[in-house]
Amino acid sequence: MGASISSSDSRPPQGIVAVFGGSGFLGRRIVEHLLSSGVAVRSASRHSQRAGDAEKGQAHASSFTHVEADMRDEAQVARAVAGARAVINAVSLYSEHGDTTFERVHVVAASQLAKAARQAGAERYIHISGIGSDSRSRSKYIRARGQGEEAVGAAFTGATFVRPAVMIGKDDALLSTIARLARTLPAYPLFGHGETRLQPAFVEDVAEAVARLTIGEARIKAGPFEFAGPGVYTYRNLVLEVARLLGVQIRLVPIPFPAWYALAALCEFVPGAPLTRSQVELMQIDNVADAGRPGFDDLGIESHSLDQVIRAILEKS
Ligand SMILES: NC(=O)c1ccc[n+]([C@@H]2O[C@H](COP(=O)([O-])OP(=O)(O)OC[C@H]3O[C@@H](n4cnc5c(N)ncnc54)[C@H](OP(=O)(O)O)[C@@H]3O)[C@@H](O)[C@H]2O)c1
To answer: Can you give the residue ranges of the NAD(P)-binding domain (predicted)?
Structure first.
């Protein structure tokens, strides 16, 4: 399986790109990479402009707009994708609340968005999912991600699927949590024995890859793309490496997964849900790219290592 991207024409393509979830951790970087390439962007999310959006609006006054749109609302979606030449879905849902279920957002709304993009005449559609997506998984979250890919593929023929590994970078959920706990706790609580394997990807590399897939003269033979960094770590080794780079001495303490599920169930009631059961579930499953699938190399991107990312974050903090 492979992909070929040709970019003989370096001029930015005409027409706007609509980015759903354009204010999120990955989405806002995708927006920035597109704007830097001279592409006009319409960012869509439920809430009014955040600080970053206001800055982008000033820096790219003629090429950046933000629209308030809920992916579950067909009329708002139709307005948000009107006239777009490409549409990207970077919307997340990590814990279910009431009728906001994984199926509702990652399957039903995702396929409606793809259908609306097709009806609006978009030439390209990029769906962000995750490594390990599997429509037959026993996990409700992983199953919804897999079913979402299938539903989007049916709604938009030729849609491009992007599966990032766990992403790291400034303001991430993984490294910043490890660093905070390593600096403050007398003993570091591991997920189980910390044997789950992870291959973290730098969020800026993933955003650049998505921008290239969106604007390149792409003839993508096959997907999905799986984007993961150059190093594979057990969770235990990842924690030790972060502590080493921070210059912190830590003592690791294995915590059984049932205890984590109980804690996550409580955390889901806390605003901002610092830990969810679907995140704990993901920490039980290896999150490593399938070497047989296209990835960064196919787009000419040299991915950043964990050390490079941590050093870059430390320099900026
Ligand atoms: N973060 C990772 O390490 C990671 C790893 C692998 C895959 N992924 C995938 O990458 C994608 C982006 O993840 P992320 O971590 O960047 O997410 P995030 O930081 O939580 O951002 C989510 C974005 O979606 C918007 N959003 C949420 N619900 C919406 C709705 N109903 N309608 C419209 N917009 C909505 C949010 O803005 P509002 O709240 O204002 O609507 C926000 O802009 C997701 O598919 C995620 O599963 C992430």
So the answer is: 21-167
Do the beta carbons of residue 44 and residue 67 sit within 8 Å? yes
Neighbours of 311 (CB within 10 A): 13
4-55 pLDDT, tens digit each: 343 344 455 678 999 999 999 999 999 999 999 999 999 999 997 665 666 6
Whether ligand 1 lies within 6 angstroms of the CB of 130 is answered as: yes
Residue type, 256: P
3-state SS record for 227-280? ECCCCCEEHHHHHHHHHHHHCCCCCEEEECHHHHHHHHHHHCCCCCCCCCHHHH
**Of all atoms in ligand 1, which is nearest to the CA of residue 22?**
43
Tell me the per-residue pLDDT of 154-182, one tens digit each, with 9 for 90 and over: 999 999 999 999 999 999 989 998 999 99
pLDDT recorded at residue 258? 97
Mutate to test the pocket of ligand 1, among 43, 49, 91 (most ligand atoms within 8 A of CB): 91
List the residue whose alpha carbon is closest to atom 34 of ligand 1: 45
The response to whether residue 90 sits with its C-beta less than 6 Å from ligand 1 reads: yes
CA of 249 to the centre of ligand 1 (A): 34
The CA distance from 255 to 261, in Å, is 11
Among the ranges given (23-37, 82-96, 261-275), the one the predictor scored with the smallest mean pLDDT = 261-275
